[in-house]
Amino acid sequence: MTTYQKIVLASRPQGQVTPDNFRLETADVPPLQDGQVLVHNHYLSLDPYMRGRMSDAKSYAPPQALGDTMVGGTVGIVVESRHPDFAPGEAVLGSLGWAEMGVADGVQLHKIDAAKAPMQAYLGVLGMTGVTAWYGLTQIMQPKAGDTVVVSAASGAVGGIVGQLAKQRGCRAVGIAGGPDKCRYVVEELGFDACIDYKAGNLFDDLKAATPNGIDSVFENVGGEILDASLAQMNPHGRIALCGLIAGYSGALPPLKNVRVLLTMRVKLEGFIVFEHLDCWPQALQELGAQLAAGKLIYRESVAQGLVSAPQAFIGLLQGKNLGKQLVKLV
Amino acid sequence: MTTYQKIVLASRPQGQVTPDNFRLETADVPPLQDGQVLVHNHYLSLDPYMRGRMSDAKSYAPPQALGDTMVGGTVGIVVESRHPDFAPGEAVLGSLGWAEMGVADGVQLHKIDAAKAPMQAYLGVLGMTGVTAWYGLTQIMQPKAGDTVVVSAASGAVGGIVGQLAKQRGCRAVGIAGGPDKCRYVVEELGFDACIDYKAGNLFDDLKAATPNGIDSVFENVGGEILDASLAQMNPHGRIALCGLIAGYSGALPPLKNVRVLLTMRVKLEGFIVFEHLDCWPQALQELGAQLAAGKLIYRESVAQGLVSAPQAFIGLLQGKNLGKQLVKLV
Known about the structure:
The structure is a homodimer.
Chain A: E1 3-9, E2 22-28, E3 36-45, H1 49-54, E4 74-81, E5 91-94, E6 101-105, E7 110-111, H2 128-141, E8 148-152, H3 157-168, E9 172-177, H4 180-189, E10 194-197, H5 203-210, E11 215-220, H6 225-231, E12 234-242, H7 259-264, E13 268-271, H8 281-293, E14 301-305, H9 310-318, E15 325-329
Parallel strand pairs in A: 8-9, 8-11, 9-10, 11-12, 12-13, 14-15
Antiparallel strand pairs in A: 1-2, 3-4, 3-6, 3-15, 4-5, 5-7
Helix pairs in contact in A: 2-3, 2-8, 5-6
């Protein structure tokens, strides 16, 4: 292979992401310099945070430049290496973006044990997804046995793990998701105690009925009315781990109405980005790995086939069409 | 004196507080039981939190019952005592409400040193007001030298102290207040670096201009657009001490629009009530007392004369008519 395909940011979305925000390009495989590694990507991770990087609004990371390869986590196999720590044939985790191949400095790659779990699990439950869930739950929500924990986007990759980790800590886990199929998955497969279908039209009442002892902590992925509904049931000294605001990723974020509760219930709300807490990753991955090995961590993957399907899969992710982790299989 | 006057809650406000929500009553001075103390109140403290107690919405404290004496902090002189720790003539801090006199169990009273500071200072800078400022600043905002700290309702009793304590820690203190007189007071008397007049019509731009290095932490007393303006300038890992939401005390609280910043800047927001942190009071009062004794803590009082003036003074407080601590002088 002397060329490979990649997808670049063609234009910034105005509201909804559309296919023409992306452009498929063919690139030459560059010659390696000392210290570099050429990786053949097998899986690409699609995650809501990418929507933020497509815009030029001020955020935690600079926007990505027009014409650059879309950012993203990848797993793949080393093809060629001029770095002493990596050899051809080894499986690695990297951030090589929406591309079939990529060149990385060795420091940007992490070897993974593909015998322990399928390669793509290191993009999900054993990677950023799992650690995000673990960090928000353990470091911000600080659950105690008996707490009621609410998770929005509960059928998503992160939300599904939050609820399972909360259950293992003796909490009542209540999910919020869109549609009866997702809610059934959250309760019957993932083991949440209840899941509210926000599309059913009775979000506030349904959530109230499912949280008879109030809400002690929230893992928030959505914002807007979904967060307002949780705030309405918040107990004193509630904690909110703010992980995402997908309600505002395709237009203006709806304003928050129940702000008063933050004061009257003395709530602690904290926005976080898991990459700023690298010190927590070993502990998180140890617990996630042990739970996975013991068969106590259920997850699903939605897998799109081929790089060319990535834009539509990403648009579907923002519209909530996926169940569990959204991946693109590149080989 | 065998009778005294008190003001009770006559009706719950619908939106704005009005004089007919209150009723002046005459009560008999009751005979003392063992362990009780009769106090002649000299000053009553008026504070925004009282608005919450007048409503029956769920909050951190139960609403006060219709017909009961309005709650409130008081300082006064012991008239009669059947408690071994208190003797007639001693100055005490209590929570005897909107009343000329009151009977308290000894445990509800604290002796104050009227030689160290005027009696009413124990309702303000050396009491709940000062500790509220200290707690939010030191425990939630955790300022470092060089930080930019924004304080809303900066000309109020709490806000004025927050800014001064922040300046003493090497911060840039920027206030937000309503009208040129208040802003002049905040800068020229209290020593803030700048103060934005939100009534001037350019809140967002003016605050941006006054915070060229962004905002590291916020002491929030107001909410709504005032908080949105601070969020728009927030630096990564900003902290918000949520002390009050006076924008919503006389009607619906305006929704919060810049919620996205809480995520993108990984902000920590915490609502708090100073009475839940009694362990901090000694340390806070030590610093406040030392600063006051050294002449480094400036404060003003707005004093209404006579119990009968309390309702109008309280309505004025909610409308921002006071400068500094709002008191009612009862003798």
